[in-house]
Amino acid sequence: MKTTGIWVAALCALACAEASAFTPTRPVEVVVHTGPGGGSDLLARSVAAMMEKEKLLPVRMRVVNKTGGGGAVAAAYLAERKGDQNTIGFFTGVWLTNPLVSDKAKVTLRDLQPIARLVLEPALIAVKADSPYKTLKDFIAAAKQKPGELKQSGGSITSRDNVVRQLLQQETGARWAFISFPGGGERIAALLGGHVDLMVIEPEEAGQHIRAGNMRVLAQVTEKRLAGFPDVPTLKEAGFDVPVVPQVRGVVAPPGIPADEVAYWEEVFRKLTRSASWKKFLADNQFEDGYQNAADLTKFYDQFTSQMRGILKEAGIKVVR
Amino acid sequence: MDVLHGLLHGFAIAIQPANLLWCFVGVLLGTIVGVLPGLGPPATIAMLLPLTFLMQPAGAMIMLAGIYYGAKYGGSTTSILLNVPGESASVVTCLDGYQMARKGRAGAALGIAAIASFVAGTVGVVGLMLVAPPLARFALAFSSPEYFGLMALGLAMVVLLAGRSLVKALLSMLVGLWLAGIGTDLFTSVPRFTFGQLELLSGLDFVVVAIGVFALGEVLANMEAAEEDRVLPVPKGLRNLLPTGQDLRDCRFAFVNGSLVGFVVGVLPGAGSTIASFISYGIEKAFSRRREQFGTGVIEGVAAPEGANNAETGGALVPLLTLGIPGSSTTAILLAALVLWGFKPGPLFLSDNPSLFWSLVASMYLGNVMLLVLNLPLVPLFAQVLRAPAFVLYPVIIGISMVGVYSTGTSLFDVGLLAGFGLLGYLMRKLDYPSAPLILGLVLGGAMERALRQSLMMSGGHLSILVTRPIAATMLCLALLLLAVPLFARLNAWRMQAMEEEK
Questions:
Q1: Which CATH architecture has domain A123-221?
Q2: Contact, A35 vs A182, CB < 8 A?
Q3: In whole angstroms, what is the distance from residue B490 CA to residue B494 CA?
């Protein structure tokens, strides 16, 4: 009886939501913090294509690139759009990490309206195929022998690449250099050219280089082995008990939008993550389904932020908030 | 034989009516995007990406690549006519192209830009077809120390861009280097020279500075001479508008130089077409017999950089297609397109998808021909723009500049910056400071600083890494040599003078 009551209430809530339904009336602006071709930009464009294919949105999505400041520019742009009904943004973990180290970032992810978490991107730790290091243990041992002489290529210091390095350094006491390259292509080129010894790379990026025999994977930064890499140990299996830091991507909206609009977007993205196109997209890119609704996402912010704060402090990076 | 077989197969696909149409659509769109300042190929390709999901991948790739190299053709138009660089790679074209237009040779400049683009664009495709895999290995040999050498060589070009005073040119370059430092530092995430402005966190957009300093500065300086309201001379008749046989002979070396420099620099993922165009202009000037006339409207000064930025396209596709490594935002979005169509770009892409590769190569030969046929007849049409009197032309230039800048980032802050840099350009003209070195510093500064700091991180702080690696050392030596040339020239002049006096 009681459950029926809940069902009725839920149905009513749904129906009521339908009745007062908000729907976007003009093309939706999707704000991303990377230029055309960057990670968030590509996700946004893929999502736009899937929305159209699955007929989930009555209007089109238009990607707007607001680059710079590790997401600060895009976040500020969204905050300026307070109450705007036709704007959403795609965030990554950098939007949480960056404000920790930059006091110039006036707007944090907490100032925006959470909608949904979408994907978790796992990572691999890779070396060049002719590298002397057959396992991650080999690499760590070599790094211990000549502290600071081995090198890793990666993104900015707040990127996941560096976080993985910091965690491994803290765990083992080994030390190696981290060299920032602005573009993903340059990071791979530096590894394949033998100019650096190691990199953290996304599975899809690495796949072709592994098949071609240019690259070898030492470990995967995941809780359990990826379907595409059944023979590669996870960090824990490789003997390193460090927290797994996934790259997280999700959706936010400008602050101050009405509750029915939040519900609308939550529902659209929930439906998207249940669709066949989405499953194929995840499989093609070897991403993990990271769906969380707005309430869970807020909890995730806290957990992620405190974890990152600790990691950055340990790494000797100045934390400003 | 493999190449021939592949190419024939590629032509068989590229010549299908649908693909020919897509090729034409691509190069036409590219030309338009190139002519309009601001809106560049990456944004255009990104906008069209959703449409391509309904197309055959070969046709889609042919079209998107057409936009990429077509834009390089169109970019020179506004540089030559209005001193407004249409694309970042066309900044150098302003130097001699605009001066040619002021002398009534706009048609010849536009014509030679199209011809040089065609020659070098085709050489670039030949390079892509024949030497892609070995060159990709060469590209991997390049890392931060080598890039630092390359950028230093580029900066040394300042002696060639200097007007009467080398000191003023160097000062101008230093301001450019400082401007390049504005924004968030990659290595420490610390904002530099942003003055609390959120908009400056991503650094200055190079196009904003170039359009401000070149176009607005020029307009402001010209407006001063209010009494001189003469219309620029434009000769009548197609024959008088196109380059002459003498022009083509003058450009022989520029064609070769532009093609080779453009292609080789294009192959390097960390360089880019703007750098290619600057370097080929520098080489052209350094080896020219009429070096002192550069900057006053010399036709080779248009042919070399225009050639280089087109050959760069073929080069940039080498690491993209053979390694899956994109070197610029345009190639990054092409890479994304390949992934979205279900391909796996990377080292096996060529062997897995030979027909896509060869149809792309074949389409690029056809596309370059189309662009030549499309652009040459447009020359007289575009040249007529200059017939407009100053009171029409100047507001149009200012309008185009503002729309162009606004369209790149839809930010009014950028339009304000444009006005500021316009004033700077005006002041520099009044005080006789050359503006090209400032742009050179801005283009190279960021990449050069990154390369230096990456190199030092690689070597654990030892500067020796810059001279112990052969490619880097060679390029640094060349840069030193280039810097020393004017000193020798001066020394020589002084010695001659002394000998004269002795007699």
A1: 3-Layer(aba) Sandwich (3.40)
A2: no
A3: 6
Task: Locate the domains of chain A by residue range.
Answer: 27-120+246-314, 123-221
| Beta sheet of A215-221, edge-to-edge order | A177-180, A151-154, A198-201, A123-128, A215-221
Write out the E strands in B71-128.
Answer: none
Tell me the percentage of chain A whose pLDDT exceeds 70.
Answer: 93
Distance CA B264, CA B471 (A): 14
- Verify whether the Cβ–Cβ distance B186 to A182 is below 8 Å: yes
pLDDT in tens, B29-72: 998 888 887 777 888 888 888 788 788 888 999 999 999 999 88
d(Cα B297, Cα B95) in Å, to the nearest integer?
8
Residue with structure tokens 């149009």? Answer: B396
Residue numbers in B near A76 (CB within 8 A): 198
Q: Is A123-221 the same fold as A27-120+246-314?
A: yes
Q: Taking CB atoms and an 8 Å cutoff, what residues of chain B touch A45?
A: 46, 49-50, 336, 340
State yes or no: pLDDT of A39 exceeds 90. Answer: no
In words, the CATH class of domain A27-120+246-314 is alpha beta
CB atoms within 10 A of CB A65: 26
| CA gyration radius, chain A | 21
Low-confidence ranges of chain B (pLDDT < 50): 1
Q: For residue A265, give the DSSP letter.
A: H
